[in-house]
Amino acid sequence: MKRALVTGGSGAIGDAICRRLAADGMHVIVHANRNLDSAGELCEELIRQGYSAQAVRFDVTDLAECESTLEALAEEAPIQVVINNAGIHDDAVFPGMNPQQWHGVIDVSLNGFFNVTKPLVMPMIRTRWGRIVNITSIAGITGNRGQTNYAAAKGALHAAGKSLALELASRGITVNSVAPGIIESPMIAKAFDRESISRLVPMKRAGRPEEVAGLVGYLASEEAAYVTGQVISINGGMI
Q1: Contacts (Cβ under 8 Å, ≥6 apart) of 111
Q2: Which residue out of 51, 150, 218, 226 is catalytically annotated?
Q3: Which phi and psi (to 5°) does residue 51 adopt?
Q4: DSSP strand E in 58-189: where?
Q5: d(CA 158, CA 161)
Q6: What is the pLDDT of residues 83-92, one digit of tens each?
Q7: What is the pTM of this model?
Q8: Measuring CA to CA, which of 33, 159, 166, 231 is 20 to 30 A from 48?
Q9: Catalytic (active site) residue 150
Q10: What band does 121 get if pLDDT is binned at 50, 70 and 90?
């Protein structure tokens, strides 16, 4: 049974990804930092349904904590699927953006990618099979007003993923990015009303977390062995 780590696994998209990977027969490690209770509840539900899961807590911005936690997990068995889903928003127009807003968003999305993925790459290489999927955003492709920090972090993940894909391609390891547009979540419900979504999205609706998870499930599968170094948008035709 392949083992998959999903960072930010207790959020709307992370939850759906965990459920999809569990249904695909993987042992799912549901990561949380502040919401460990939610991650634990998800694991309990998955286990009741006959799947395999466990919850883990660490701060993706703390390299030492990531290394110690993930190296211990990898000693049990290699983690061959890594879904870098953890991310935060801290929006402000650039002239009013303070250093904490800039560094905080970069630290979770971009430095978190390094801190989480780095300790797991060598064990993955030794198995000569792996899937790394970075959950990014349409903002990393088009930019977005008030999200210079967020767009910078997600755009950098696109470039990092492409570069890492080149390094790992000969080892049977793929690296891809999934860039969602407007996806249903409590945060989106506060930011966009139905009229705004209809105006912005050609499909006239927000995407569902399960639709993002379906794409991630494919990229994490055997069938996606020849797909690497890609940024795949899922946005209802916005771009």
Answers
A1: 60, 61
A2: 150
A3: -95, 175
A4: 81-84, 130-135, 173-180
A5: 5
A6: 999 999 999 9
A7: 0.96
A8: 33
A9: yes
A10: very high
